[in-house]
Amino acid sequence: MSVFRQTVRDTLYAHLVAFKAANPTMVTGDVYRARPGSFVAPCIYIGGLSEPRIVQSGGAGSGVRSRQMRPTIVIVTRLIVPDETSQAEDDLVDAFLDYMDANEHIAGGIIATESTQDTELTLEGTVYSATVITCRAEVAEGRS
User: Fold this and answer.
1) Number of compact structural domains in the chain
2) What's the domain range around 76?
3) Cα–Cα distances in angstroms (integers) from residue 14 to residues 58, 83, 104, 135, 136, in the given order
4) Does residue 124 sit in helix, strand or coil?
5) What is the DSSP string of 23-79?
6) Above pLDDT 70, what percent of the chain?
7) C-alpha 109 chain-centroid distance
């Protein structure tokens, strides 16, 4: 049985915990393994673990299965004063990208940042500014 998805989530969560510990004034909210039911911003959570490409070589149940995942990390800040919030969010995103670039390897594969997308999230009537960071995670698994 493969543990790729769990390994990616565990690795990303460990990165979030370590990043928060190294930057306690930037991430004053919590870090989460998945989207929380409420936000205390700024916070960071692991979004979806989409796998746009899975390739099986060899016969059924044997050979090698290559998996390419595009996990997302969401950095959330509360939208209060747009100019102040955008500067703090920009600084947080830049610091997180630098951290991930310096810590991209995982056992049996790799996790690396790939893109960012700014968005807004509404939760219980409150609008939050957010940046979704898409990563790349890849692994080749022997099947027997």
Assistant:
1) 1
2) 4-143
3) 34, 31, 12, 15, 16
4) coil
5) -TTT--S-EESS--SS--SSEEEEEEEEEEEEEEESSTT-EEEEEEEEEEEEEEEE-
6) 87
7) 16
Mean pLDDT of 120-130: 86
Q: Are 70 and 114 in contact (CB under 8 A)?
A: yes
* Amino acid at position 77, single letter: T
* pTM, to two decimals: 0.86
Tell me the average pLDDT across 89-108.
Answer: 82
- Give the distance from CA 63 to its chain's centroid: 30
CATH number at residue 109: 3.30.2000.10
How far apart are the C-alpha atoms of 53 and 46, rounded to whole Å? Answer: 20
Unique residue bearing structure tokens 């940046």: 131
**Local confidence band at 85 (pLDDT 50, 70, 90 cut-offs):** low
